[in-house]
Amino acid sequence: MAELETAQSEIIISDRAAKEIKKVMTENNISEAAGLRMGVKGGGCSGFSYMLGFDETSRETDKVIDSNGVRVFVDEKSLPYLSGVILDYQDGLSGKGFTFENPNATRTCGCGHSFSA
Question: Of 38, 15, 16, which Cα lies nearest the Cα of 92?
Fold first, then answer.
């Protein structure tokens, strides 16, 4: 199992995002031992798209980060693109959902779900 990072998390989960992640896990009977899988894949209007999901266990090559009480699994290929990311959750007039504040993004699309580095 991958080593657990706590002191210097490269990914930050905001209070609002952590609350929503835990709510989704409870509503969908996802084990508390599971983690939030964050990654990037090629595609989207700016080159890369963000991926979010849940995994029961980490993979051998994952970086495992604990941020705001949420276990985050990141594959080694996605980590350079996600280092320094702040995952937040918005619930306002313009819609609701997770948002990414990514210091590695040189350009983002209007929807906020894809970026280029």
Answer: 16
